[in-house]
Structures are given as C-alpha cells and as structure tokens.
Specification:
This protein is an alpha+beta fold. The protein has one domain. Strand 2 and strand 3 form a beta hairpin.
C-alpha cells in the first residue's frame, strides 16, 4: 500500500512540476559560463538515467536542506529520479564565492549520509550511493552525481567546465 501511495504522490509531483515555470533567483543557469541545463541534457542523453525531475520547493528542501539559503551560491540544479529507490542523481552548483564550497560540500555530505543510512533505502540503492557517487569541484562549479557511469560523468563535467 505504501508503494502505491508513494507512486501516486510521485505522479502528482510530476504533474505539478510540469505546470510550474522556471523560478528566478538560484536555480537554472542564466548567462552562466557553463550551461548547466545543457550539461544535464547532454549527460542524460549519453548515460542511461531513470526518469528524472528538477527538484524544487519542498522536494529540494527535503533532499538538500539549506542549499537554497547558502550565501555564495549563484545557481543550482538538482535532478532526482521520479521513483524512490532508483539510484541516480545529478546536482550542479555554480559558486558565486569559492569560499562557499565547504558549505556546499557539507550539504552534499548530508545528502549522501541520508541515502546510505541503514534501512533508509534498498540495499542496492545504498550500494550505489556508496560506490557510484562522486562529488566534484571544478573551477567555480560543483557536482554530485550518483550513477554507474559516475567516473565518465565526472570527466565530462571537468572537461565542460575547463572548456568555458
């Protein structure tokens, strides 16, 4: 029954997100050196990801508490799977101030810890968060990726940032 309710809530969230337009302030990159939306779209085109949604509002605060309030963060995008239990995630952050990197890393570490706690996820999901998760800093950008191709995605991210 819980799975049915979770599935129904996920579907409602998808439809709600479809109705919402982009917000101003921190969020999708505008006039940034790295087009984070383009990087995301290219990445999911190259690497098989489950259906992903852009986390906003309550969902964002539930998964990445405090990220939207961090000083020194210019923009961010958090993409998470529509279905719970799917071991994939892609979070991109542009720093306005390099000194904010430690605070972003703390938020990233908290997300990883929450996803690897005993009993919080399926064993395969926990394993993926432990073994297929990378936190990367390249220039004034940061990325947290959970994917079986995490090393390739890390290299592509570093190359994309360096090319700008």
């Amino acid at each position: 029954m819980k799975k049915v309710i979770a599935f129904a809530l996920a579907l409602m969230m998808i439809f709600a997100l479809c109705a919402c337009g982009p917000t101003t302030g921190p969020g999708p990159a505008q006039n940034a050196d790295l087009d984070m939306t383009a990087f995301y779209e290219e990445t999911i085109g190259k690497h098989e990801f489950p259906g992903m949604v852009l986390a906003e509002g309550d969902m964002l605060e539930m998964f990445y508490p405090g990220l939207s309030d961090l000083e020194g963060v210019a923009e961010f995008q958090v993409y998470t799977p529509m279905m719970t239990g799917a071991a994939a995630e892609l979070t991109l952050v542009k720093l306005a101030d390099p000194s904010a990197a430690d605070a972003v890393k703390t938020v990233f570490d908290a997300r990883v810890a929450a996803c690897t706690e005993e009993g919080m996820n399926y064993p395969e999901t926990i394993d993926a968060w432990v073994n297929n998760c990378r936190q990367v800093t390249a220039g004034n950008y940061m990325m947290l990726v959970v994917h079986t191709d995490c090393d390739a995605i890390q290299s592509e991210f570093e190359a994309a940032v360096q090319a700008k």
